[in-house]
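Record type: ASSEMBLY
Status: queued
Input:
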Amino acid sequence: MGAYILKRLAQTFVVLWGVSLVTFILMNVVPGDPVLLMLERRARPEDVARVRHEMGLDKPRAVQYFEFVAKAVRLDLGRSYFTKEPVTTALTRRFGVTVRLASLAYAIALLLGISMGVAAALKRGSAFDSLITGGAALGISAPVFWVAILLQIVFGLRLAWFPISGIRSPGSFVLPAAALGIRYIASISRVTRTSMLEVISQDYIRTARAKGLAEKTVILKHALKNALIPIITLAGTELGNLLAGSMLTEWVFAIPGMGKQMVDSILMRDLPMLQGTVLYVAVIFVMSNLVVDISYAFIDPRIRYSHGD
Amino acid sequence: MDTLAVQGVPSLLSVRNLRVSFNMKRGAVRAVDDVSFEVSRGETLGIVGESGCGKSVTALSIMRLIAEPGRIEGGQIRYGGVNLLDLSMREMRGIRGNKIAMIFQEPMTSLNPVLTIGSQISEALRLHEGLGRREALDRAVEMLSVVNIPMPEKRAREYPHQLSGGMRQRVMIAMALCCKPDVLICDEPTTALDVTIQAQIISLIEDLKVRTGAAVIMITHDLGVISEIADKVIVMYAGKIIEEGGKTDVLTNPLHPYTEGLLNAVPRIDRDSDELSVIPGMVPNLAFLPEGCRFRPRCRYAREICRSAPVKASGFGGIAPRGVSCWKFQPAWGGEADV
Ligand SMILES: Nc1ncnc2c1ncn2[C@@H]1O[C@H](COP(=O)(O)OP(=O)(O)O)[C@@H](O)[C@H]1O
Ligand SMILES: [Mg+2]
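Status: finished
Output:
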């Protein structure tokens, strides 16, 4: 177990290093000179040279890269061209908002997705099953922004139950989280149903029943724990999509999170901010995969023991 | 077909006229058709037949573990003065794993991969005997040593994938026996194992049967297992019992041509190996049964009369009541029945 986690940690470091390299290269091939963007259009050449020197942009690329990494590990991602605020501070503030939105959506999706999937599997072939399966097909194909706008119109404008923009009250998170979560409720319930159907036909489920266990124990203890393995895989890979989806949702609902930050910094060509955001998102993505892999090991002893121990 | 009546001893479990069918797309198939037998305490009943003859379905019916699209259509399963088919699901769960326990064919897949051996055994103890977590685990460890698993404390903490097939089958036996069941049903417990391991498992079951006095139903397609462990035997073919009797009687003097064929297919040291013969043909698809005797298309004695359903003939002496469903033993066949 320990060896497995160490191995995954080492892999994660390699990936993070790759991420930093790719981010750096991307920022250097973006068209437009950042110094010219920062200064007045009619800046004097000597001012341009001075700022370029101050920003370290006249050093060789390799040196720039190592300085970038050295600063990044100390959580120094530079300052915004425009607000002059340290990128890390801005990102941390905005990240908090995104985390609140994404985790609410994620929690709803896991809770509803798994319970609906289990119920559908147990009532296979029933009208309820068709409803869930049909609903899931619909939910997966519906684009996030379309769902978001629909929710805004129905619950925000018509019924006026929840605010449609900003984050002034906790209620502000309801519609965005729903818009973001629906897709994952759908995909998680679908995978849960399939996985559950496969697991309940396994021999060990028959063994559990042959012991005289109540159906509830058979399902929740013997079946669900096995069925969770593909669900975790999905939930893990969807975490990245969830972040992407939250960018769109934040944009539609005018929520000041990472997503809005990224779109804003692209529009304003705020390179340090954009670079920081990309790096931040990539790190979160990699870390969430690490967490997923480690949680496998906790659920599935075959993984836990097959890597040393 | 009427029931085997064991002389004197009241039977512990008796199955009467059991009928089980599966609703398939092309219509229902009857996998178990009018099957009756009984077992008494300390007795081992062997059920033999080729694959697909309805042995597992019979066993699962006793546990009432037949799932969709299967359905128990009729008959009785009498245990402890009641018909198990009349019990509620809740009452039935009180019987399963407690009074009647079962061991399955596939030890590799019959244990839950994500739960420890110890917790899988102690589960039944906590449920049926109301033991606490600790006590149940201690008893589970004890059971592991009863089934001769070395280092039981360590094994109890391990997961199924860390054990060999033979070890897993021992775990299954420990699990089945932990609540001291009256009836132990073994569905081909050694089929998936190596020959040397097979012998160990069979003698373990025999040993535990003697110790606990449980009745054992041993399902197998291996007549070697039957000769080792059974007291009496029923032979199934395409969902029906075609022959029954005491072990020695059936093995040394098979009446039904199918039983005869099965015995000829067993390699024996006292016979030339080239005499070994398999029965030609296959068990018929239950959806397309031949008319009359179900074995007729494969039977070398088949005659015109076999196109109508055979009647059971009984008597023949022997320890346990003997019966055979074959026209050869009916007066209509002519004088030379005992060929
Ligand atoms: N789950 C099932 N679905 C459909 N038919 C089944 C099912 N299980 C058993 N059967 C039918 O019952 C017959 C007997 O099966 P089984 O009792 O498993 O045979 P065996 O004697 O090899 O244990 C099979 O040939 C098949 O036609
Ligand atoms: Mg079978």
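Annotation: The mean pLDDT of chain A is 85.
Annotation: Chain A touches chain B at residues 202-204, 206-214, 221-222, 225-226, 299-302, 305 (CB under 8 Å).
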